């Protein structure tokens, strides 16, 4: 018998490009169970249960309509204000939840990670998928509001062909949040400061994305600074989302292409850094 | 040639002491600069052992240092050593929770590690949901769990509660359920940290039984870390003794336990405590007949115990318990304390088997408060050349030596 034969080895360093995707696939059942756990534990012992998913976007929409729409009088490109804001909020919420939850994944799971090995990538993935469920529910709410404005209020807006890009938009939002979150999570294991930065950084980032104003208005009013908003990879996603469902927004293939490339690069770097940190984070967290 | 299940080569693991996070960016840059020039990490100095009692010169300690061993398939191996000897680190590296600083481990077969029972249990979820979740975290597929579900529930004995959230479980039930899931993992290698320290006696027995079954019956490799020498001895044939991060001994479990007690014995046979608290135990001294701590079987052993009594209280007792090498309490003897500060205690040794013993000493009010409770002091060793069990050497022949009459 050959003693050199072994199925696994534990070594200080792994190759940088070993993304452990195969390993992760073997644990796919765990992914679903974690998603289920997140969902079930969210509404257990609450009276309203999953209804809570509705309340947050509804209240935010009402407040945005009041503050930005009525008080500040920011243009909504001729769309009904609540609909405009809700589209932005629903999409933005998904991205920001993915980002903030993923960025604390090491800290939140230090307990489990310190005791059992499983491909760590499962955890951020489960966050993205759990939030997808949440996003689905909120999206449903958006559709209901859309239906109300279309049939009851007879508002004038139309669905465009870009609605077919909806799955791509969702996937890109998820991956962008995931990639950025993993990058940050990897760094927060050592430099805790970043964790503070994320919470308000995400809020600030929202204002640099076209959530509460249309891109066209930004370009019109601040032609010199609009590039900041245009180079923000989230902007094309939200604009496409609005263009698809409400028929109003700035859509261009090059913008979507740009976002796709940025997302994939961030995701790849995120996974590599994440996998590198995962090996020893238990010692520093 | 036999099958090697786990092989460790020059395995080392360094930890940084003190505050992590102050000045780390500059250190990281320095480290990174050293690395791109192909130099060694400037903050890892070679050759410092992990002795927590003495002050080292650098901030880095080697929790494991150049560990080499091979474990054969089907072996049950106990890993023993004092606190901080590197046992848990070794288990962590083996279960891939953290990676080694240098060296490597290779092996064959799926590893299941139980550094803790119930990892990932969610209090809001029911027993059923938690079995699935915990099983999946430990690496089981859903199908596999479904197949073993009834067996797991049966082993844990929580059938009535299976659809109740585990936060309503008693802690015993919780642990039983958690262990049951882990015990039904289909893995070739099982790594267990002192998880058996929980649950009631009956369940502990069941766990030990299950683990014994696992290693003997199913031919699985078991690595077991414990301070409880009885269970190590019961479960394992082989022992690995770690001391200050170094591998001190690997081989027969009885010899490993013997070596372990020898390390502990390097402690002095005199106990001195400078506390000024009332009824604190100031000094315990083994009065030797000659200059050895080792005693022969027929000797009478004598201790002097000095107390610090600043304020006399009614009904305070002094108690001494004799502890054997497996940390079992053999007997306890108590005496009411009067004004006297020094007490002499002696007992015959012919009731004892050969081996290492220590004392637990306490001052207390019966069924009331403890004033001072010291454990595991004044080790002494008994050599037995006379009794009938002497010829059996280190084999487990019982707890005490009784001179029986055969006719």
From TrEMBL, chain B:
One Pfam family per UniProt: ABC_tran
Keywords associated with the record: ATP-binding, Nucleotide-binding, Transport
GO CC annotations, alphabetized: membrane
Record-linked InterPro entries: AAA+_ATPase, ABC_transporter-like_ATP-bd, ABC_transpr_TagH-like, Bact_Polysacc_Export_ATP-bd, P-loop_NTPase
GO molecular function: ABC-type transporter activity; ATP binding; ATP hydrolysis activity
Domain ABC transporter: 44-269
Family membership: Belongs to the ABC transporter superfamily.
Name of the protein in its database record: ATP-binding cassette domain-containing protein
Organism: Pedobacter chitinilyticus
Species lineage: Bacteria, Pseudomonadati, Bacteroidota, Sphingobacteriia, Sphingobacteriales
């Amino acid at each position: 018998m050959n003693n050199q034969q072994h199925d696994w080895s534990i070594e200080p360093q792994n190759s940088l490009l070993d993304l452990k995707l195969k390993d992760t696939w073997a644990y796919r059942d765990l992914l679903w169970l974690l998603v289920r756990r997140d969902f079930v534990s969210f509404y257990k012992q609450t009276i309203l249960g999953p209804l809570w998913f509705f309340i947050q976007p509804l209240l935010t929409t009402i407040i945005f309509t009041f503050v930005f729409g009525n008080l500040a009088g920011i243009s909504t490109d001729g769309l009904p204000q609540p609909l405009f804001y809700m589209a932005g909020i629903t999409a933005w919420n998904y991205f920001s939840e993915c980002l903030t939850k993923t960025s604390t994944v090491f800290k939140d799971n230090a307990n489990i990670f310190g005791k059992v090995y499983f491909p760590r990538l499962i955890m951020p993935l489960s966050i993205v998928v759990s939030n997808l469920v949440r996003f689905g529910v909120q999206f449903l709410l958006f559709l209901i509001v859309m239906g109300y404005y279309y049939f009851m209020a007879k508002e004038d807006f139309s669905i465009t062909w870009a609605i077919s890009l909806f799955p791509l938009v969702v996937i890109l939002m998820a991956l962008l949040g995931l990639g950025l979150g993993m990058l940050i999570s990897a760094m927060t294991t050592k430099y805790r400061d970043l964790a503070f930065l994320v919470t308000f950084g995400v809020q600030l980032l929202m204002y640099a994305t076209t959530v509460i104003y249309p891109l066209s208005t930004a370009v019109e009013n601040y032609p010199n600074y609009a590039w900041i908003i245009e180079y923000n990879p989230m902007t094309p996603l939200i604009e496409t989302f609005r263009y698809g469902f409400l028929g109003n927004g700035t859509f261009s293939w090059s913008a979507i292409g740009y976002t796709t490339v940025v997302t994939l690069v961030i995701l790849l770097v995120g996974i590599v850094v994440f996998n590198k940190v995962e090996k020893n984070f238990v010692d520093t967290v | 040639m036999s099958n090697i299940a786990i092989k460790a080569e020059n395995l080392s693991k360094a930890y940084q002491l003190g505050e992590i996070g102050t000045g780390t960016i500059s250190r990281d840059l320095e480290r990174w600069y050293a690395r791109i020039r192909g130099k060694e990490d400037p903050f890892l100095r070679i050759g410092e052992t992990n002795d927590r009692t003495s002050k080292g010169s650098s901030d880095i300690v080697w929790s494991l240092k150049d560990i080499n061993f091979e474990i054969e398939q089907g072996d049950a191996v106990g890993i023993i050593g004092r606190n901080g000897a590197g046992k848990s680190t070794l288990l962590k590296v083996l279960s891939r929770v953290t990676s080694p600083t240098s060296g490597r481990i290779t092996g064959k077969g799926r590893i299941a590690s139980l550094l803790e029972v119930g990892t990932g249990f969610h209090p809001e979820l029911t027993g059923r949901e938690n079995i699935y979740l915990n099983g999946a975290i430990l690496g089981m597929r859903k199908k596999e769990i479904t197949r073993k579900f009834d067996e797991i529930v049966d082993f844990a004995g929580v059938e009535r509660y299976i659809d109740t959230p585990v936060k309503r479980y008693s802690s015993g039930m919780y642990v039983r359920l958690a262990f049951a899931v882990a015990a039904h993992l289909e893995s070739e290698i099982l790594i267990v940290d002192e998880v058996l320290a929980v649950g009631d006696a009956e369940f502990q027995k069941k766990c030990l039984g299950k683990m014994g079954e696992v290693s003997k019956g199913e031919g699985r490799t078991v690595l077991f870390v414990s301070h409880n020498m009885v269970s190590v001895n019961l479960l394992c044939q082989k022992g690995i003794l770690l001391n200050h991060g170094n591998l001190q001994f690997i081989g027969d479990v009885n010899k490993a336990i013997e070596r372990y007690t020898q390390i502990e014995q390097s402690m002095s046979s005199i106990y001195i405590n400078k506390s000024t608290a009332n009824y604190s135990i100031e000094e315990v001294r083994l009065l030797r007949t000659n200059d050895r701590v080792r005693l022969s079987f027929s000797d009478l052993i004598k201790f002097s115990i000095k107390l610090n009594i600043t304020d006399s209280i009614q009904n305070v007792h002094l108690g001494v318990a004799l502890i054997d090498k497996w940390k079992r309490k053999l007997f306890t003897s108590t005496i009411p304390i009067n004004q006297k500060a020094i007490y002499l205690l002696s007992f015959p040794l012919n009731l004892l088997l050969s081996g290492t013993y220590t004392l637990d000493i306490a001052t207390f009010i019966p069924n009331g408060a403890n004033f001072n409770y010291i454990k595991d002091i004044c080790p002494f060793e008994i050599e037995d050349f006379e009794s009938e069990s002497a010829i059996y050497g280190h084999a487990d022949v019982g707890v005490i030596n009784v001179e029986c009459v055969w006719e």
